[in-house]
Design brief:
Layout (H helix, E strand, L loop, with lengths): L27 H5 L20 H17 L13 H17 L7 E6 L3 E4 L2 E4 L3 H6 L4 E6 L14 E3 L1 H14 L4 H19 L5 H32 L3 E4 L7 H11 L3 E5 L15 H4 L2 H4 L5 E4 L2 H5 L6 E4 L3 H11 L10 E5 L5 H14 L4 E5 L5 H7 L4 E2 L2 E3 L5 H6 L3 E4 L3 H5 L6 E5 L2 H6 L6 E3 L2 H8 L12 H4 L4 H14 L1
Parallel strand pairs: 1-4, 1-6, 4-5, 6-7, 7-8, 8-9, 10-11, 10-14, 11-13, 14-15, 15-16
Antiparallel strand pairs: 2-3, 12-13
Helix pairs in contact: 2-7, 5-7, 6-7, 7-8, 13-18
Length: 499
């Protein structure tokens, strides 16, 4: 939920992490006070005349969230290869783009390289290739390698790699960075002042230096990004842009703004958790009413179902589409036999950040409920850590789940436990009972949900050994995972292309 590519935060470990400062977090509205200032709707990025704050708001807000809600800092860089892989991947991307310079696509879908599956021996991108299949002859995927090599044997060959554009913009940005320190300082002064006044939170000096360098870099590279995106969109003949993380900021605001400047319809496809506590999908009132800010956001949000779209707090038009990958995999596991000991299985979902907290929780739960089999499923970001740290696939009395399919693991579980995880929603219609751990973090990030809750292991153990409450949940699995995604997506594309 909370990873964000192309940002490098100061390195901290849980061992030397400073004490959290500021007031306790009650909800996301409290955090959004930091940006509820008209001055942020007037500060422009030199060279593009776009608002500056949307480019850099996510990393700043996550510095605060990380400090106030996490015992381990939020990682803001997605996993990537080493220096050699990054260099080779970039070279391969340049060669690929050169060989495919004649690509055309009325529909451009931007996605990260994360999300690869194998289908019939070929690499299948689970987030976007379902959409591609509905208009394969008209669709090109703009993909970020994120420090990895170019994938081989792809199911979809209509791909243009994003990394050369980002690399060129970063190189040119470094050359032009010296003239933007004053603008960066002016922006930081506003949000520092607001953070102290509204939250009692002060930006540490090392993080201020890091954030200033990021702001300067983003300002400096923005003109190159805008020019490159406009050239690419014209070359491809794009009429509809559908981008992962289009509401997040970063380079995506430049891509969306470039598309809008050319009259191209824009949308974001949902790729994970969306809630009234997700910083990328909620804005302070002053910003939500800003026409300049709206010009940097997509026109539409393509949600998994009705519930997710009710969570949006950004000025975009919600459209119910569904989820191709979830639909296919849920149908597959429903047709398969369940685990023989399913009634005894409790699946605990990791969050990819606070691994120690979750292993301690799972260990305590297993001791409290010896009649159950407690299984811990690492988040994709921590699978490598758990595989190397626990080669026998267990810690204490807890088994580690390495099943490639989370849906099979969910269907094989009597109960699923999580704190801030899309996996809880994926369990709807598969597991018998779903519990959300009511912590300060989950109250902020997931203030609304359709699950049972608990405060500690004792309360959870009591609930698990008691009948499920008879009250019906307000939202159904259909509200979360809308059926018929193919027809819904076809209608959306037809409408967009007809315009």
């Amino acid at each position: 939920m909370l990873t964000h590519a192309d940002i490098n935060q100061p390195d901290q470990t849980s061992g030397d992490r400073p004490e959290a400062q500021g007031q306790p977090m009650q909800d996301m509205a409290q955090l959004l006070q930091v940006e509820d200032d008209v001055r942020l709707t007037e500060m422009l990025c030199p060279g593009t005349d776009m608002l500056l704050w949307p480019m850099v708001r996510t990393p700043f807000l996550r510095l605060i969230l990380s400090d106030l809600l996490y015992s381990t800092p939020i990682p803001t860089t997605a996993a990537s290869g080493g220096r050699k892989d990054r260099a080779l991947g970039l070279a391969e991307a340049v060669a690929h783009n050169t060989l495919h310079s004649g690509l055309k696509g009325r529909v451009l879908i931007r996605a990260s390289v994360m999300g690869g599956d194998r289908v019939d021996g070929k690499r299948y991108h689970r987030l976007v290739d379902g959409f591609v299949s509905r208009a394969a002859d008209q669709t090109v995927v703009l993909e970020d390698l994120m420090g990895t090599r170019v994938p081989r044997n792809r199911w979809n060959a209509q791909v243009w790699y994003h990394d050369p554009i980002l690399a060129l913009a970063n190189i040119r940005g470094r050359r032009a960075a010296n003239g933007h320190a004053e603008t960066a300082d002016a922006l930081i002064a506003i949000v520092e002042e607001r953070a102290r006044a509204c939250l009692g939170w002060t930006l540490p000096e090392d993080q201020r230096a890091w954030f200033k360098s990021l702001v300067v870099r983003y300002i400096a590279r923005a003109p190159t990004l805008m020019r490159a995106y406009r050239r690419l969109l014209k070359r491809l003949g794009t009429e509809v842009l559908i981008a992962e993380e289009a509401c997040y900021g970063n380079a995506m605001v430049c891509l969306v703004a470039a598309a809008k400047s050319l009259g191209i319809k824009t949308a974001e496809f949902q790729h994970g958790m969306v809630s009234k506590g997700h910083d990328a999908y909620v804005l302070a009132p002053t910003l939500a009413q800003s026409s300049a800010y709206k010009a940097m956001l997509p026109d539409y949000f393509l949600g998994y179902g009705e519930w997710w779209n009710t969570q949006l707090g950004v000025p975009v038009e919600p459209v119910i589409i569904g989820n191709p990958d979830a639909t296919k995999k849920q149908e597959q596991v429903r047709s398969m036999p369940r685990a023989e000991d399913r009634d005894r299985r409790i699946l605990v979902l990791g969050d990819g950040i606070e691994s120690v907290k979750y292993t301690e929780f799972a260990t305590t739960l297993a001791a409290a409920l010896p009649q159950y089999k407690v299984i811990f499923r690492p988040h994709p970001l921590e699978r490598g850590h758990f595989a190397s740290t626990y080669p026998n696939n267990r810690f204490d009395a807890v088994e580690i789940d390495h099943n490639p399919s989370i849906y099979q693991s969910l269907a094989d579980s009597h109960a699923v436990i999580g704190e801030v995880s899309t996996g809880l929603f994926e369990a709807m219609g598969l597991a018998d009972r779903i519990f959300l751990w009511a912590t300060e973090k989950s109250r902020v990030f997931v203030p609304e949900h359709p699950f049972e809750t608990f405060g500690d292991v004792t309360e959870l153990a009591t609930a698990l050994t008691s009948p499920r409450p008879s009250a019906l949940l307000e939202w159904s699995a259909e509200d979360i995972w809308a059926s018929g995604w193919q027809a819904r997506y076809d209608r959306f594309l037809e409408e967009m292309l007809s315009k």
